[in-house]
Amino acid sequence: MTDNLSIHPVSTFSKTLAYLMVCSVLLYIFNNYLVYWQGLPGPYNLLVHLGWLGEASSAALADEKINHGWMQLVGYIIVLFFTAVYVIKTNSLSLRQASERLQILAAYLVRVAFWAVMLIGFVDMLISFMRIEKFLEFWISNELIVQLGRPSFRGIYVHYPLLISSFVFALIFRKISFSWLALMVVLSEFQIVLTRFVFSYEQAFQGDLVRFWYAALFLFASAYTLINEGHVRVDVLYAGFSRVKKATANIVGSLFLGIPLCWVILMHGLGGKGNSINSPLLSFEISQSGYGMYVKYLMAGFLVVFAVTMIIQFSSYFLRNMAELIEPENKSPDEAGIPPLTDAALPEGMRKNSATQKRES
What we know:
mainly alpha; 14 helices; disordered N terminus
């Protein structure tokens, strides 16, 4: 029965749509990096230069840039093509299995972000504390101390290595709980109160750490909360819907509300070099306090993590609710046309469990 359902044309279309959506958002982030960090033209500037978009190009692209643009455009098309091929090759997967794979991807990206803010938060706070208390003079040279006061140096040589290492931590430690991050926020706020009123000591980096972790807590946990139905619903009608109506409402909400909203965040923040997300990331923007933490630019990047993980999770949510319409699990054997299973039809290990359940009943 599962094999027949898995090749349902609507099922295939749904999986293709979801996987292409996820692939598109990852390509969009990668293209943004190539265009604004590495100086490549990108497909859009190439098409503008060729006049295919009906816009006048302000500056003609050099031959080398044109070649790079074509390489990017063809490369992205190939990636999207093989994504569609992957869906066809794995068409035996049910919608729920495809949904679980997207959940795994979203969970991994969230774990990466979790470890990144934990590691960067601790290390940057320690550097700021040692700088303001002049403890670094006993460990490193004056030249390196001056360099650590430059946002770009600290970002490239301190934050980026920690960010890369977080990808490894996310692979090793697969069980994380955002309650730990919430606890760290509470402890950080508590130490501010303690040092301020007991020791009359307060520095800018203390408040920066609380804001850094607090923003990460809410933005990174959103994808986890979505799939566990943890977000607050204000629709008083939804609770009384049938299973089919609930699934339909979730599908419409994911495709026409959730995913477009996340795309608006990405395109508004990453649409240009001076936009609200690209600008802080490119300039390593920091707060005005000289001895605070140098992580303000990373907080702009939190919006990218939020939007990307939510798009992946909305795509997974879309597939899971499509499964409620196409591959419902709660049908009785008679409704689904499946003959009742006997012990002889079960694997040996399940026969024992079945016999045990009968004795217990």
